[in-house]
Design brief:
Metallo-beta-lactamase, Chain A, 2 domains, 7-stranded mixed beta sheet, globular
Length: 472
């Protein structure tokens, strides 16, 4: 059937789980014997069992025609320099905010990969030159503006609440007067953001016959299952005295947590005399960008820093580590594996007066996941050193930048002609559960789960058939 179509797209995900996001598209127009290859995101795998997948692509980088980026998180951008190192020289399309933020992220990723490679006596994935060559390829596309990629393909970016600069990307493919193929990539999706208003999709988009590539990170959880606990836990611990360590992701979560702490100070829930320390070079750089530039987003708030917050650098970190005062430490990384967080864990994990409060997704194999799951009194290994865990460890998903299952279903039900939904970006069992929910609660004509095992051939009418890949 595929050879009878005048235009079709083969779509697959190169990631089976949550990190390493990369959707690979092969657009074929048999009528004129044309083939175009597109990557939507090109992220770093962070699960330990997937580390080997970071080192190669199952396609020729030189033959990729275009790359589109949904947002600036390393699990969506962290392998772009490797793609360039292997020969990619085309445009990398993203929003203006993402273009501003990404150089910082890639430089930091390069440094982390260098340190990791040195510790493990392995070759570094890519270097500073590859990062600079990647940055030179970035091309910004304003929200709502349509970018023509070639004679047959165009892309439009729409605001997404997941993160500053995040986008939903509509890819439209059309050969002559044939029916178009409309693919909408959600990236990591959220319908709200603490810092700016998220406009609704235009009606013309919602009326398109469309195939949606939908994330599923929290596809097994509804929004009413989220029980806010962060403020209560912080208030209680500060009343008891001790230390709170709050691991945060550099972009988005850092700024959100700082804003919550500021709001607590202003409302009297948090004593302004309690010192708040903010540690993490990349997070501090991002915060400065937040403070001076809202990128024209409606409702953007730049007044969010806690009163008298102290930026931590190498010169004062030792003082903070050895201080016995009641204090709050906001530090990277969000999953606890990288950044200054391991240093604070080593010092405080054995202290029963310490609360370690995670605020985001803890991927399998992360230091945060291990600390969360280990019982009190058990040994934990941090940077190769053994400690007994006596600190209290809490976790909340109330800050999650991802929509929950019911919110994602609501998103899908906006569309009046939903040809198909391809589920990606979730743990395997969660993707399956969410796919079943889509079948039961939407009017999608077809539903499939993306991974490395199958391409799905997409026509203007949705899924034509799955095609087994030659790599896994």
């Amino acid at each position: 059937m595929g050879t009878k179509l005048k235009c079709y797209v083969d779509v697959m995900a190169l990631h089976n789980e949550v990190t390493g996001s990369c959707n690979f598209l092969v657009v074929k127009i048999p009528a004129v014997n044309e083939t175009f290859r597109i990557a939507v995101d090109c992220g770093l795998f962070q699960e330990k069992e997937n580390d080997e997948l970071n080192h190669h692509f199952p396609f020729d980088a030189e033959k990729i025609d275009c790359v589109l980026v949904t947002h600036n998180h390393v699990d969506h951008t962290g392998r772009l320099p490797l793609l360039v190192k292997k020969g990619y020289r085309g445009q990398i399309l993203c929003t203006p905010a993402t273009k501003t933020l990404m150089p910082l992220a890639l430089a930091d990723s390069c440094k982390v990969l260098k340190d990791t490679a040195k510790r493990n006596n392995k070759r570094q994935l890519y270097g500073e030159v590859d990062v600079q060559e990647t940055i030179a390829l970035l091309e910004e596309v304003d929200y709502g503006k349509t970018k023509k990629i070639n004679s047959y393909i165009k892309a439009t970016f729409f605001p997404n609440g997941h993160l500053l600069g995040a986008a939903l990307i509509l890819l439209q493919i059309q050969y002559e007067n044939e029916e178009p193929i409309n693919l909408l990539f959600t990236g990591d999706y959220n319908n709200r953001n603490m810092f700016f208003d998220v406009p609704k999709l235009p009606d013309w988009v919602k009326k398109l016959p469309v195939t949606i590539i939908q994330e599923s990170t929290y596809g097994n959880m509804n929004s009413d299952e989220i029980v806010p606990c962060f403020k209560e836990n912080v208030t209680k611990k500060m009343a008891d005295g001790g230390t709170i360590i709050i691991p945060v992701f550099s972009l988005g979560r850092s700024q959100e947590v700082l804003k919550i702490l500021r709001d607590m100070q202003d409302s009297g829930e948090l004593d302004r005399s309690i010192p708040i320390y903010f540690d993490g070079k990349l997070a501090i750089k991002y915060t400065h960008i937040y403070l001076k530039d809202g990128f024209g987003l409606k409702g953007f708030s730049t007044d969010f820093l806690p009163h008298d917050v102290v930026y931590v650098d190498d010169d004062i970190r030792d003082k903070v580590l050895h201080s016995t005062e009641t204090k709050i430490i906001v530090t990277t990384s969000g999953a606890g594996t990288y950044g200054p967080a391991p240093l604070y864990f080593q010092k405080f994990v054995g202290d029963s007066k310490t609360l370690i409060h995670f605020t985001g997704f803890l991927f399998e194999g992360s230091l945060g996941r291990m600390l969360k799951e280990k019982p009190v009194g058990d040994f934990v290994k941090i940077s190769g050193m053994l400690f007994k865990k006596y600190a209290e460890v809490q976790y909340t998903s109330e800050f999650s930048a991802h929509a929950k299952a019911d919110e994602m279903i609501d998103f899908l039900n906006q569309f009046t002609d939903l040809k198909a939904v391809l589920v990606n970006h979730g743990e395997s069992d969660v993707k399956d559960l969410f796919a079943e929910k889509i079948v039961a609660e939407t009017q999608a004509k077809n539903v499939a789960v993306l991974d490395r095992s199958y391409f799905f051939r997409i026509s203007p009418w949705g899924i034509v058939r799955p095609l087994a890949t030659k790599f896994i």
